[in-house]
């Protein structure tokens, strides 16, 4: 046998020198085979999963009506990364900023697909048109809508004991986006076209709920689906209600003489058909209206609880008006550090989109000790994430605007910056980051300063808004219905 081996070895075989070399080579081969197998395959640990999963349906029945509350509690019990079984689908939720960054930004090439993907390659075109450099074109229109919003809030307060502000905020955000997108406006909240559109948006959000998509999670429900026609209902909604309405808005927008987004996207190199434009604008309107109305609703509800914060913000706004003889816009935020901090802190304290949007993993990813497999859906628990004590050391559970006073970077820059420079996560992650962030920032700023320059926000006769509870509305987390009084300031500098 020895002769046989010798025959295979090089001509001058020296046993004493060769053996250590063979040993080293074998050791290296062994170590690298270990490395390869640990990085490719076996997770070192199972991702923790809450015990309340049932066979077949998994956690679908355990999430209840307030999934974000339940998932936040599971994180507290099980740690920053947890597995949730949504019937046949596996979801992973992350509630730690650093881990989320690692998974969704550093590994973004593997974790940025959408569970459904048409829009992902078309919305980047719309993104150009709502980028920071383009927003200035729209600021006068946003200011105009904000002024009308405050008129309505004051008028209703004079007539009634308090205003439920959501419909007015929705009107503000819809009119803003419609002016930008199609160059058209609605006349009042009673305008039949406006009612029709809010109905359309609400119906769309309803169909995006799990109950209309049970067959995706639980294949057995394709039978149920066959009988109840849930998917057929969605198809008919899209074909007969949503698409014709949006096709009409697109056509009207193309015919208008002033600058608007439809015209911008219709010319140049984009090469979008009318059907493409219909889908893109449906998504922009869907993503850019409720989010703004919900964010401002939280802001107002929080302000009712913090009259001192309102006074401080009003002083800052008044100082600006005295020296500039106009209301500030988002471009003046350096001169209004407190107002800008209040806006950021409201969004940190009460995130608008509690799980971000789901990201689909299309290649296995190793995250620390865990393997996240292809096909997994990733969500981020924004509430816990934005109260992480390492990231927000000063009273993370409390409303404390001062934490942002030394950070006046636009939210747009913060979301696209380095991890260490991020100050909040409300607009998501990496390649899928919200393309509407600059517009959102301009709208929220305009709404906030317009209201406080002319009114103080006070509790209604019924009592304080409940800011601890919430309800889910489609993808958003909104305050429980509440009223507030918008009492005109006798010392307002805006006439
Ligand atoms: C306060 C307001 C807003 C918040 C909190 C918000 C938040 C988000 C988040 C968390 C995402 C998902 C990011 C990810 O996947 O990591 C997103 C996506 C998106 N947002 Fe926003 N957004 C807001 C306003 C807007 C506005 C005003 C527009 C449009 C004009 C807009 C358009 C979009 C679009 C088109 C997407 C992509 C949807 C997709 O990938 O399917 N958003 N937004």
TrEMBL record:
Record InterPro entries: Cyt_P450 (IPR001128), Cyt_P450_CS (IPR017972), Cyt_P450_E_grp-I (IPR002401), Cyt_P450_sf (IPR036396), Cytochrome_P450_fung (IPR050364)
Keywords associated with the record: Heme, Iron, Metal-binding, Monooxygenase, Oxidoreductase
Any Pfam family: p450
Domain of life assignment: Eukaryota
Family, per entry: Belongs to the cytochrome P450 family.
Protein name (database record): Cytochrome P450
Organism placement in taxonomy: Eukaryota, Fungi, Fungi incertae sedis, Mucoromycota, Mucoromycotina
């Amino acid at each position: 046998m020895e002769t046989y081996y010798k025959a295979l070895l090089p001509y001058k075989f020296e046993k004493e020198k060769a053996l250590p070399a063979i040993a080293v080579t074998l050791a290296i081969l062994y170590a690298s085979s270990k490395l390869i197998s640990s990085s490719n395959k076996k997770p070192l640990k199972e991702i923790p999963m809450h015990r309340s999963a049932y066979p077949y349906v998994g956690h679908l029945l355990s999430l209840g009506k307030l999934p974000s509350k339940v998932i936040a509690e599971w994180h507290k019990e099980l740690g920053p990364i947890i597995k949730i079984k949504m019937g046949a689908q596996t979801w992973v939720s992350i509630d730690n900023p650093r881990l989320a960054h690692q998974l969704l930004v550093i590994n973004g090439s593997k974790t940025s697909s959408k569970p459904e993907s048409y829009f992902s390659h078309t919305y980047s075109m719309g993104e150009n048109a709502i980028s920071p450099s383009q927003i200035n074109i729209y600021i006068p229109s946003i200011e105009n809508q904000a002024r009308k919003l405050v008129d309505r809030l004051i008028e209703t307060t004079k007539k009634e004991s308090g205003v439920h502000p959501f419909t007015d905020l929705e009107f503000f955000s819809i009119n803003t986006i419609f002016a930008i997108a199609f160059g058209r406006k609605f006349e009042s909240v009673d305008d039949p076209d406006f009612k029709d559109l809010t109905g359309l948006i609400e119906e769309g959000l309803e169909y995006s709920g799990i109950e209309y998509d049970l067959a995706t999670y639980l294949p057995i429900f394709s039978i149920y689906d066959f009988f109840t026609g849930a998917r057929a209902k969605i198809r008919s909604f899209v074909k007969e209600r949503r698409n014709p309405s949006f096709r009409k808005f697109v056509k009207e927008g193309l015919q208008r003489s002033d600058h608007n987004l439809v015209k911008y996207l219709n010319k140049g190199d984009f090469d979008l058909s009318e059907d493409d434009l219909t889908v893109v604008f449906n998504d922009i309107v869907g993503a850019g209206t409720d989010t703004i109305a919900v964010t401002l609703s939280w802001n107002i509800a929080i302000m009712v609880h913090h009259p001192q914060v309102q006074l401080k913000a009003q002083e800052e706004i008044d100082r600006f008006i005295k020296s500039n003889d106009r209301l500030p816009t988002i471009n003046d935020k350096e001169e209004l550090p407190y107002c800008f901090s209040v806006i950021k802190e409201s969004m940190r304290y009460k995130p608008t989109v509690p799980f971000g949007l789901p990201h689909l993993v299309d290649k296995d990813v190793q995250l620390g000790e865990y393997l996240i497999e292809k096909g997994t859906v990733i969500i981020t628990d924004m509430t816990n994430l934005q109260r992480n004590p390492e990231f927000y050391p000063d009273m993370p559970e409390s409303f404390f605007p001062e934490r942002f006073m030394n950070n006046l970077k636009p939210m747009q820059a913060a979301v696209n910056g380095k991890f260490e420079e991020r100050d909040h996560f409300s607009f998501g992650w990496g390649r899928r980051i919200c393309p509407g962030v600059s517009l959102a920032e301009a709208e929220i700023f305009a709404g906030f300063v317009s209201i406080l320059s002319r009114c103080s926000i006070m509790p209604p006769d019924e009592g304080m808004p409940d800011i601890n509870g919430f309800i889910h509305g489609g993808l958003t987390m909104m305050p429980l219905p509440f009223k507030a009084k918008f009492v005109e300031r006798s010392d307002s500098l805006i006439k």
